[in-house]
Design a protein that fits this description.
two-stranded antiparallel ribbon; two-stranded parallel ribbon; 26% helix
């Protein structure tokens, strides 16, 4: 679970999800990530979600724009076990 500032652009959130997907494909594992934009919070603040969800610090995200990468709309294939020896 990753809390990010609420003003984080959608392409940055997409690139975080794509990075997690690449890690899962490279390691042949099922992985997941919860990216939660929190409006009104800045990096370093703690967000409490309540109940069993707990809390998370709001993380600083990069200022670089991954928009060219995200706009390519690449296809990430699902792992195929039949092609492994």
């Amino acid at each position: 679970m990753l809390a990010v500032p609420g003003d984080t652009p959608p392409d940055v959130i997409s690139s975080i999800i794509a990075d997690e997907l690449a890690i899962g494909v490279a390691n042949n594992k099922t992985t997941s990530v919860r990216v939660i934009p929190v409006p009104g919070k800045k990096p370093g603040d703690i967000v409490h979600f309540g109940g069993l969800l707990g809390s998370a610090p709001v993380m600083r995200v990069t200022g670089a724009s991954p928009s060219k990468f995200i706009q390519r709309r690449g296809r990430v294939p699902s792992p195929i076990r039949a092609l492994r020896n």
